[in-house]
Design a protein that fits this description.
The protein is mainly alpha-helical and 173 residues long. It has one domain. The protein has six helices and no strands. The chain has helices at residues 7-16, 36-49, 51-66, 70-93, 102-128, 132-167. The longest helix is centred in the C-terminal third of the chain and has 36 residues, at 132-167. The chain is elongated and about 55 Å long.
Length: 173
């Protein structure tokens, strides 16, 4: 059954569970660090910036898998890892806003993007596997990661809600 499971479909299903997060303007922080609202919006922007790449990658990976183009799957996974690494580095390099729940939201954001990267690492590893048995094991890893996606989404959304509640703005649609 796992052999019939499309890599692309797993990610698409996971992403379909992800809710868009929008907020309403909160009061601006008077310090040089971003306000809680601006920090939240920056996170949402980073997440949204990946959507086209994710959709394109998933479509290509489905084709590559059907054509047994394992190296192409590995390259697609590596490309997504690199895109997500840029976001992770940006989050790490900037301080959390000096607001209530700011550091916790930053930590949750890092965890969320690392989780996304981990999924694409499995794509890369899947493509590099020389045997069908090895690829089956990577698909099992991907299936296990995909099953964790709802909990990861819940975690980042809870941190986002705490940030919003503590700093007087709304999130959600």
């Amino acid at each position: 059954m796992l052999k019939k499971l499309s890599l692309g479909m797993l990610i698409i299903i996971c992403l379909a569970n992800c809710n868009d997060k929008k907020g309403k303007t909160g009061e601006a922080d008077k310090k040089d660090t971003p306000s809680a609202f601006a920090y939240n919006e920056d996170f949402v922007s980073k997440e949204n910036s990946l959507r086209l790449d994710i959709n394109s990658t998933e479509s290509k990976v489905s084709e590559f898998k059907a054509n047994q183009q394992w190296d192409s799957i590995a390259a697609a996974g590596e490309r997504m890892e690199q895109l997500i690494d840029v976001i992770i580095k940006d989050i790490k390099d900037k301080p959390a806003p000096d607001v209530k729940e700011g550091q916790d939201f930053k930590d949750a954001g890092l965890r969320y993007f690392q989780f996304m990267k981990d999924m694409y690492t499995v794509y890369k590893d899947y493509g590099h596997e020389p045997t069908e048995d090895g690829r089956a094991k990577q698909l099992e890893k991907l299936k296990n990661l995909a099953s964790q996606k709802p909990a990861e989404i819940e975690h980042i959304q809870a941190a986002q809600k705490k940030l919003a509640d503590a700093n007087g703005f709304k999130v959600g649609g």
